[in-house]
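Work Package 3 (structural annotation) set out to generate three-dimensional models for the target panel prioritized at the project kickoff. During this period the team completed the workflow that converts sequence records into discrete structure tokens, so that structures can be stored uniformly alongside our sequence database. As a representative example, we reproduce one entry of 378 residues exactly as it appears in the project archive.
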Amino acid sequence: MNTRPEATHTDLYHRAPCGLATIDRRGTFLAINQTLLEWLGLADPSELPRFQDLLAAGDRIYWETHATPLLDMQGDIAEIAVELITLGGTAPVLLNAMSAHPGRSETRIDLAIFPAEDRRKYERELLTARKLAEASEAKTRELAQSLQRSLLPPVPPSIPFVEIDAAYRPAGEGNEIGGDFYDVFRMGTDEWMVVVGDVRGKGASAASLTSMMRYVIRGAAMEAYDMPEVLATLNSALMADSPGETCTAVLVRLDIRSKGNVGVAVCPAGHPLPLLVTDAGDVIEIGRPGTVLGALPHPRHEETGIDLKPGSTLVLFTDGVPEGRRGDDFFGEERLRELLFRSGSQPHLAQIVADTVVEFQNGLPRDDIAIVTLRCTS
């Protein structure tokens, strides 16, 4: 049997876990519960000033210039953060108010006041956690960018009679290490190798695979002049050390024979074919598609040789260029060809292409972009 006496409405009003009060439009208290009196540090309701005089100076002005007009217009306001003046000092609270007859001078305004210290503590903790997360994100971005830079040549080397331009743009905001890369290195007295590749995935695994590819290609190129043989060595290394991982690449060998006489050999491996911009402005696809690396034990790759004539430019790029997307619209090879036709003779062509593709995607590329251009200067 429950012997606890039943609480009356008056008891419930005075013992409510929030402060309850009723005031007139001038702020005079008409009723107040015991909870709010205790918060204020008062024992006698007759000691109460006007309600607005219990608010901190700024909140008092807000009550008179904003809250009261809102009550007149819409009849209620909810969860306004104010500071209540008590005998123990100011206390943060959330104020709710409802006007019985909005806009009338004789209206009664019911107040419900909740302590906000726990909420403010939560908001402060949330703000601290957000700042820590932003700092961690910035540090992660900086680390990713630093590691990405270590995987790319800081400055393309100087090659006689060939002007090199290179550009790299990470996907999104650059928080992750991308899989696109390029490399340029010397093979012999008059021979150079240019590599553009695309490793599947992102993050640490992509960085590890990219690093391995660069060094295997460099090592194999020192042992074999034949580029399909270099790619076969890389394919074997991928299948042995990173089974299931695939990537694409295009190798370009430069043979600097003499002034105005630069031989070029192109060997793609599942990669977009390079585009040659002639001195007349024509844009021509160079090479034949080859097998993706890491997919088959015996891939097929072919070399295609051309002469890079003065004023002509060979453009190497990853699929982040033609597959750059804005909604359902891809940048596409046609736009790329039109851009190269218009800008093929301009300096810093790689930067121009990269910036144009990023701008097409409203400044936030969906995939990494790597571009290298080789222009015969004389």
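The mean pLDDT is 85.
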